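Preliminary data (for renewal application), D-ribose complex.
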Amino acid sequence: MIGIGSDHAGFELKSRVIKHLKERGVDIKDYGVYNEDSVDYPDCAVPVCEAVLSGECERGILICGTGIGISIAANKINGIRAALCGDVFSAAMAKEHNDANVICLGGRVVGHELAYMIVDTWLSRDYLGGKHAVRVAKIHALEK
Ligand code: RB5
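Predicted structure:
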């Protein structure tokens, strides 16, 4: 199960990404928002991050206008490694090297076709571990 959430500025891209992933047979749970009424992006990050941390969702996708605010908020939550990606190479590395359990997109930055490629790439890659595990452990050490 993949969790997805957005603020008002990410709502349109979220709707498109949900449709795209459903067509590809991906199980996806929408944590809102459900319209374009103005909201605060930190509030939108929390439900998806909690679902990832509880194991309800394997990974999460978060979208705001730039992807910046919602990624900053998500990365304040212990255990979340949220990667803001605007290109396919970064999406691949975000999983392989950083074991990013959340990916963030800018709904006002990336076009929907590029967003599909970014999400598909991130979902298709596996964490490589090894020397990267030492680095990810050091990220977690910063949380204490
Ligand atoms: C909302 O206007 C906008 O500030 C938000 O979606 C996001 O881009 C913040 O980083």
